[in-house]
Write a structure and sequence with these properties.
This protein is α/β, with parallel strands linked by helices. The chain has helices at about 5-15, 20-30, 35-40, 55-65, 75-85, 120-130, 170-180, and strands at about 45-50, 70-75, 90-95, 105-110, 135-145, 150-155, 160-165, 180-190, 195-205. The strands form two sheets. The protein has a seven-stranded mixed beta sheet, with helices on both faces. The chain has a two-stranded antiparallel ribbon with strand order 6-7. The chain starts with a helix and ends with a strand.
Length: about 210
């Protein structure tokens, strides 16, 4: 499958599971201590673009902290929920591969549990586009699950549908960021409250 076929498969899945996903996300994001590590790098009223924002759980958190937020997601049903949850955020139905079509540049961009859905042949291009949408000294924040089974597999929230995963190491993403003009500020591994192991990276565009 090429990246567009993968994305279309993911879009179908996330449109179907949007309501279930919202409940899962609320539970998963109860622990936001490493989100706050990212936010501590930002000035008051900074602008944040959340890539693959899902049902808007983090958008709401950013918004409640006083940041100006924009979110994008490929799934229309996810976007509808996010718009209801964060009505004063600019939430758009958009592919992450198209973020270079956004004219605005942001103080920060977050992509949580997103990079693992990007095929390895496209990850460098996506990171490069993220850098283009950041202001000078802009901050990029990512969280991703490690030790994933790779390829197309059953979606845990509805086994009739599929999702695609790629296994990236923390070191691999750090090196890609450095190659694309970023300085890594924070790089750590954590075990979340749902017992999954994740890598957390905060990087600055230089």
């Amino acid at each position: 499958m090429d990246y567009l076929e993968i994305e279309n498969e993911m879009k179908k899945t996330y449109n179907v599971i949007a309501t279930k996903y919202e409940k899962e996300a609320q539970e998963d994001w109860k622990d936001k201590k490493y989100v706050d590590i990212f936010l501590n790098y930002l000035n008051e009223n900074a602008t944040i673009l959340d890539i693959a924002c899902g049902t808007g759980e983090l958008l709401k958190y950013y918004n409640d902290k006083g940041f100006e937020t924009t979110g994008i997601d490929i799934a229309k049903e996810m976007v509808c929920i996010a718009k209801r949850k964060v009505p004063n955020s600019n939430v758009m139905e958009m592919s992450l591969y198209d973020i270079d079509s956004i004219e605005e540049k942001f103080d920060a961009i977050s992509a949580t549990f997103t990079l693992v859905h990007i095929p390895k042949e496209k990850i460098n291009q996506v990171i490069n586009k993220i850098g283009q949408r950041l202001k000078s000294d802009g901050i990029f924040f990512t969280v991703f699950t490690t030790s994933l089974q790779e390829g197309l597999q059953e979606e845990p929230l509805d086994s009739k549908y599929k999702y695609y995963a790629v296994n990236y190491s923390k070191e691999e993403i750090c090196n890609i960021l450095i190659d694309n003009g970023f300085k890594v500020l924070e790089s750590t591994k954590e075990t979340r409250i749902n017992k999954t192991d994740v890598s957390i990276i905060v990087a600055k565009k230089i």
